[in-house]
Amino acid sequence: MFFHDRRDAGRQLASLLTQFKGPDVMVLGLPRGGVPVAAEVAKTLGAPLDVCLVRKLGVPSQPELGMGAIGEGGARVINDEVVRAARVTPYELAVVEARERELLESRARRYRGRREPAALTGRTVLVVDDGVATGSTARAACQTARARGAERVVLAVPVAPDDWTARLGADADELVCPHTPWNFYAIGQFYDDFSQTGDDEVVACLEEALARSAGARPAAAAPEGREAEVRTGPLVLRGQLTVPEGAPGVVVFAHGSGSSRHSPRNRFVASGLNRAGLGTLLFDLLTEEEETDRANVFDTGLLARRLADATGWLREQPEARGLTVGYFGASTGAAAALWAAAEPDARIAAVVSRGGRPDLAGPRLPAVTAPTLLIVGGDDALVLGLNRDAQARLRCENELAVVPGATHLFEEPGTLEQVTDLARDWFTGHMVPAAHTTVRFSTPRRARAPRRDTVRQPRRTWSREQGLVAACAVGCRPPPCVLGWNSGRGEEEPSPCP
């Protein structure tokens, strides 16, 4: 194997592209697998990132075999040799092309949202994919970049056949590839992890690059984590555990909708939590085989059991022993987080849901005792309604934070940053070392004002000892006040002094 995964491939490829660093460089990733590779290249070069949308034209009787490709700007590449060998008629070719053109336009809206394609006029454009096989898609991508006004086109891939330069012809001004093995059969044979890249991951890569280029957060380095084998029953699931020195707790991420520990969107949030001094565990809730069955993605009970098992595993790790645990759930993973947090012995310090489906936790919601923050995009009307309904069933401390102008995936500029800030404030405001009992002063529930959508401000937490000092300011002795604490609702509140 040459690469661990696409991110690793991107870092290796970026080391050969440092000469292109400059203000006029634009990196274009080919969705979907090429985008995580391109994201690493863009990060290394400090360059902006966009997608280069092309669609393979598959042979009707064998769709995985490419007979050509199309791209934005009217680019079209046909492999006449494959067309003749497969006996594809002009009519069949036209039907396939029309279908793929419609999908291409749909993908453009899906990935960019309301954003316009990046301006390429007069720029040096690096077209990046996770590898080259037949070359038709790469040729279409280069022609697309040229049609959009690129002055110079560089095609850069981590791996390609040894004769790849002959296949690409003159479509690119320069070709860069660190590995060109003679025994090339398929791109995936050179990756340890070549799992499918989802649309969510593509959008997250673009959002992360936008936030970085906008300078929304200082470039503070996050601590290094370690690869982990998370044991959940008879299975061993792969994960990434990061625990900064002095961390008060660890946040376990519950991914949703089939995404994995590689999700750049959740990794972006996790990095922000790490910079704030919190530990994180990202792991795959499902195996690759299980992900093929969509029913597993919505099996809240199964996902919650995996999450609970992973939490038990985490608490046995040396770097996490004695630390509090929180849950961050996205999409269907939010339901799993709340379901698992509702277990009597869960001992979860806080829960945050991003664009989640807490309604899928159903009857478990009233049993959740961990303080819960629900984050929803203001333009995600359906999910916002579901979250409001779910919030009404919660009996724990909870708030609903609405990010204005954000859609379900928080793909709009700056919205993922807001999610990160909200999650950071909620966790740092509620997670203290497990050896202490947190005390949160609040009025009794019956006296609270009605809930309202709000962007939460950090609240102060107290240890039991600190709480007694405050509670006894009226002159009572500590022992009576200790007897006056009420923990029946899962968050301790001072009752009237004796």
Report on the structure:
The chain has 16 helices and 18 strands. It has helices at residues 6-14, 34-45, 80-86, 90-112, 136-147, 164-168, 199-213, 264-275, 288-291, 294-297, 300-315, 332-341, 381-393, 415-430, 464-471, 478-484, and strands at 25-29, 49-51, 54-59, 62-71, 76-78, 124-128, 152-156, 174-176, 226-232, 235-242, 249-254, 279-283, 324-330, 348-354, 372-377, 398-403, 485-486, 493-494. Helix 8 links the parallel strand 11 and strand 12. The longest helix is centred in the first third of the chain and has 23 residues, at 90-112. The protein is elongated.
Question: What gross morphology would you assign?
Answer: elongated
Look at the structure and give the mean pLDDT: 80
| Helix proportion | 25-40%
The class by helix and strand makeup works out as alpha/beta
Gyration radius, to the nearest Å? 26 Å
The fraction of residues assigned to DSSP E strands is 15-25%
Number of helices: 16
Strand order of the largest sheet: 9-10-12-11-13-14-15-16
Largest sheet: 8 strands, mixed
Distance between the termini: 70 Å
Q: Which consecutive residue ranges, at least 5 long each, have pLDDT under 50?
A: 216-221, 434-498
Total beta strands:
18
What are its keywords?
single chain, 498 residues, alpha/beta, eight-stranded mixed sheet, five-stranded parallel sheet, 16 helices, elongated, disordered C terminus
What would a concise description of this structure say?
The protein has 498 residues and is an alpha/beta fold. It has 16 helices and 18 strands.
